[in-house]
Amino acid sequence: MVNVASAEPITQLDPERVARNLDRVRARIAAAAERAGRDPSDVEICVATKYVAAEAMPALAQAGITLAGENRQQDLAAKRELVGDRLTFDFIGHLQSRKVKLVLPHVRLIHSVASDSVLGQLEKHGTPDTEVLVEVNLSGEPGKSGIPPDRLEEFLRRSPVAVVGLMTMPPLTEDPERSRPYFKQLRELAAKHGLPRLSMGTTQDFEPAVEEGATIVRVGTILFG
């Protein structure tokens, strides 16, 4: 498996190996969706590419991946320039307000809108086609990005662009079941506000996320090993 703790970029990927891993993830998503009475095609796989170097990105497209999620604005621009339209990009990392105008031209969705300053920049640089997800901090962990649930309604009301869903990051845990209550709460919040998209679940816990209604799961290292 890839050791992300070293933060060393992955410079080479075997498309055939990635494709096999992708098939396994799809099968696990399909099984989780079946358990929940859902259609697996309603769940998108967003491949987290934070640790993938730009030169390795074409291998993802060759492996059959269609949606990449990037954390850094600078890397996003470089990777998008290299692969062009072979991959669709979402922005899934912490978003600084000064980077909003640089991110928007390259992405389908921003998953991590969570501050008044970002709303201000979206008002300046967004378009009628701009769509975003609001990040919600359900755990209340200090220092973690996200809007508290009790502020969500007024935050949504003030958004100058279309909010189409919610995103959350539960506390880190080795037990995926510990993430389930957070996923359930996010689903209930989204339903309350009529928001169709739910970005939740990563390599560690995407199966309970699917069972609780995720429409986008963000996986990375499980595909690269």
Output the number of helix runs. 9
CATH architecture descriptor: Alpha-Beta Barrel
State the domain count. Answer: 1
Question: Residue share in helices?
Answer: 25-40%
- What is the number of beta strands? 8
Mean pLDDT: 95
Provide a descriptive summary of the structure in words.
The protein has nine helices and eight strands. Mean pLDDT is 95; it is low at 1-6. The N and C termini lie close together (4 Å). The chain has 225 residues and is α/β, with parallel strands linked by helices. It has an eight-stranded parallel β-sheet with strand order 3-2-1-8-7-6-5-4. 36% of the residues lie in helices and 17% in strands. The chain has one domain (4-224): Alanine racemase (TIM Barrel).
Give the tags.
225 residues, TIM Barrel, alpha/beta
In short:
This protein has a single domain (4-224), classed as TIM Barrel (Alpha-Beta Barrel), CATH 3.20.20.10.
SSE arrangement:
Blueprint: H1 15-35, E1 44-48, H2 57-62, E2 67-70, H3 73-83, E3 88-91, H4 100-103, E4 110-113, H5 116-125, E5 131-135, H6 152-158, E6 162-167, H7 180-192, E7 197-202, H8 206-211, E8 216-219, H9 221-224
